[in-house]
Amino acid sequence: VIAAVEPIALGVNGSRHALQADPKTPLLDVLREMLRLKGTRLGCGEGECGACHVLVDGRSQASCTLTLEAVAGRQVTTVEGLDAGLREAFVAEQAAQCGYCSSGLLIAAAALLRERPAPTEAEVRAALDPHLCRCGAHPRVVRAVLRAARGGAR
Ligand code: FES
């Protein structure tokens, strides 16, 4: 007899979920496969590239290395749950080329702006540093985050 798995509570983008899944399931898989939130991307799968970052209780974290049980009862925000102001600044500055890293960068920017609503360029660069971008869009991304800050985005 297989024991029923207890549902695990999780808040995502303001909605509450009770998820019936292996507690060791990566948060990234929960978001993409169970909740169909496809904006969060799988890159390295090892916590090194930043593509899969989401906010967990407001902090930017890699969803590929976090398990469902590790985030039980916490509030997760994905790129779909961010305010429009930040995304609009990225569009205005054309801050993406292939776009694969964009959702992770947007999450890092959101985490920064929640803590530092008017960051310096150096602070923006430091916050984005862990996020790999192969297209070389970083200068435009930095401009976008500074534009978003001027516009009061969070
Ligand atoms: Fe998670 Fe690279 S896919 S950090």
Concise overview:
With 154 residues, the chain is an alpha+beta fold.
Could you please describe the fold and organization of this structure?
- The chain is of the alpha+beta class.
- It is 34% helix and 14% strand.
- It contains 5 helices and 5 strands, in the order ββαβββαααα.
- The protein has helices spanning 27-34, 84-92, 102-115, 121-128, 138-150, and strands at residues 8-12, 15-19, 53-56, 59-62, 75-77.
- Strands 2-1-5-3-4 form a 5-stranded mixed β-sheet, with helices on one face.
- Strand 1 (8-12) and strand 2 (15-19) form a beta hairpin.
- It is elongated.
- The mean pLDDT is 94.
- Bound molecules: FE2/S2 (inorganic) cluster (FES).
- FE2/S2 (inorganic) cluster binds next to loops.
